[in-house]
Prior knowledge:
CATH class: Alpha Beta
Structural class: alpha/beta
Strand content: 15-25%
CATH architecture: Alpha-Beta Barrel
Order of helices and strands: HEHEHEHEEHEHEH
Radius of gyration: 17 Å
Mean pLDDT: 90
CATH topology: TIM Barrel
Number of domains: 1
Strand order of the largest sheet: 1-2-3-4-5-6-7
Amino acid sequence: MLTADLLALGSELKLLEAAGVKLLHFDVMDGVFCPMMTIGAPVVAACRTPMFKDVHLMIDDPFPKVDSFVRAGADLVTVHVESCRHPHRVLQTLGAMSNVNDPARGILRGVALNPGTPLETVEPLLGELDLVMLLAVNPGWGGQKFIPATQSRLARLKELIVAAGRDVLTGVDGGITRDNVAEVLAMQPDIVVTGSAVFDGKNPAANAAYMMEAANAARRPASTSATRHL
């Protein structure tokens, strides 16, 4: 949502819904962990939509702030291991919270890793996680190129998850465009995040439809273990 037109937020949400998008990704930056400052919990709350709200907290020390985003309607909250003094405490706290959109569901918990962060940092956390998101660019600004090493990192991450015997989703975020989305989907992440490739100021409806068709095409081959692209 960072690249959407906030003055036409309702219309932007409708075009995503019409394209079949299931997950709405919010990049929250604080000007401390990241160079930029973006949005906060009030914007998350203002997005009234049936789409799943995925809140990516690129902020310093997220522990005292996660409650405000859960109350704003987050379904999934992702924090950075690099920003947490006590990541287990943050994840365990999120696991005990109620989902305001559906009290029968809990809050899904994610951890994000910067491109230069060793994958081993996530191993002690896998028991508390639903998602590991790999950043394919350095966090904080748009227009960066997809880092090719993300492909091998994703493959190794999947090996770590299998070895741990966990059912944890994987995701890739950053530098994903119309030109490379098929290549990224071929890496078989469960979630792909794209922003400016949709909201480019030209034809977001067509862009969103293109991305969804690419995701649907990636999972068409008959398989009992089809990936779960959103």
